[in-house]
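W.,

You were right to be curious about this one. When I first looked at the sequence I had no strong expectations either way, so I just let the prediction run and decided to look at it fresh. Below is the sequence, 136 residues in total, followed by the output.
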Amino acid sequence: MVYDQLSIMACIGSIAGFASGLLGVGGGVVVTPALAAISDLPQSHVLGTSMVAMVLPSLVGVFEHSKLGNVMWRQAGILSLGSVAGAVIGSKLAIYADENALRAVFAVVMSLLGARTLKQVISTGKAAAGKPPKLK
């Protein structure tokens, strides 16, 4: 990897860390597409590298949000159990999946999630700041 690419990766990491702390996103939304764009890595390697790159920022985010009282520990624990199972299965599938299919699925999922979030913001007119969400 050349020096310019390392600088770009450091910038991507900074943006991802900022997005992780501010929005709870980073790896999948910032690092994965950016790494795919600047490198010639296979998509399965992009995914794995993105996941590793976000471990430390995630831990820092957990610490900071925990200090602020923003962590719903019970729900986070349940989500974590499901995430572990999904990560095992998804990682194994990614190894065998077609490169272009992985990229297409990623793009569709990100588009759908973005559209849903935008629809919620538009329909409510504002975000409910300072109030914890009610789980259904």
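Here's what jumped out at me. The chain has a mean pLDDT of 85. And, maybe more interesting for your project: The CA atoms of residues 87 and 93 lie 10 Å apart.

Coffee later to discuss?

I.
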